[in-house]
Design the sequence.
């Protein structure tokens, strides 16, 4: 099981069942604000905004919250001033980690993220230290019971996807960011439900982890994911099946 795939699923399930729903709403509000700021407040014309709104609705964010976030992004309300920052570093076992940040105060966020790295035994690095190890891609995760492999492969490739990866309980549809919208539209038209969909960073190669290192890395990833300003976390680890079985015991 690929580390990236596993973490994507963990993060998705966690966001759905997280008791601290307000924290998840805060993150999604920021995503809506930036999408509206960069592409306008009409979800019919702004695909990124449409998907951010869909994510918010999926965890029952109130309509008023969504509309307020859109207005902040378009400048109709104050509070839309957010910086997009990419923090890079290394976690336990030399795992490369990328954190996509949306913050209204870099001076607050940077030391907080640095501390999470250091507590885990990792280190926040300089700009560019690990970003070159990742490719920016569109990623859709689909549960296996939603469709069969042959139909999904034909549909996705025809819509512009680059690859469809198959795991025990899910498919991953990978595309160039420019083709992501078309691939999503094709999947939606075919009435195939997605577990998650996002523009993310996928590692070119992965590092296999033993059980103890995997525990440390996952703990660090969870701490980063819990931070209010961290929108997305990518890492280049892989947890072999034997180690995964021990973690799940």
Sequence:
């Amino acid at each position: 099981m690929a580390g990236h795939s596993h973490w994507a699923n963990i993060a998705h399930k966690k966001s759905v069942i997280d008791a601290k729903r307000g924290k998840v709403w805060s993150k999604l509000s920021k995503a809506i604000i930036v999408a509206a700021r960069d592409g306008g407040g009409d979800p019919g014309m702004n695909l990124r905004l449409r998907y951010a709104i869909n994510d918010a609705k999926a965890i029952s964010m109130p309509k008023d919250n969504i509309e307020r976030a859109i207005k902040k992004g378009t400048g109709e309300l104050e509070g839309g001033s957010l910086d997009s920052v990419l923090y890079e570093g290394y976690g336990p076992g030399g795992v490369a980690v990328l954190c996509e940040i949306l913050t209204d105060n870099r001076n607050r966020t940077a030391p907080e993220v640095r501390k999470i790295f250091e507590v885990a035994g990792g280190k926040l690095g300089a700009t560019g230290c690990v970003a070159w190890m990742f490719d920016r891609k569109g990623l859709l995760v689909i549960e296996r019971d939603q469709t069969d492999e042959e139909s999904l492969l034909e549909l996705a490739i025809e819509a512009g996807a680059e690859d469809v990866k198959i795991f025990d309980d899910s498919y991953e549809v990978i595309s160039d960011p420019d083709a992501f919208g078309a691939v999503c539209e094709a999947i939606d038209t075919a009435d195939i439900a997605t577990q998650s969909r996002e523009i993310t960073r996928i590692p070119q190669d992965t590092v296999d982890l033993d059980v103890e290192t995997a525990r440390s890395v996952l703990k660090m990833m969870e701490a980063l994911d819990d931070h209010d300003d961290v929108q997305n976390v990518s890492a280049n680890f892989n947890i072999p099946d034997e180690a995964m079985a021990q973690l799940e015991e």
Notes: The chain has a mean pLDDT of 87. The chain is about 50% helix and 20% strand. Residues 46 and 170 are 28 Å apart (CA to CA).
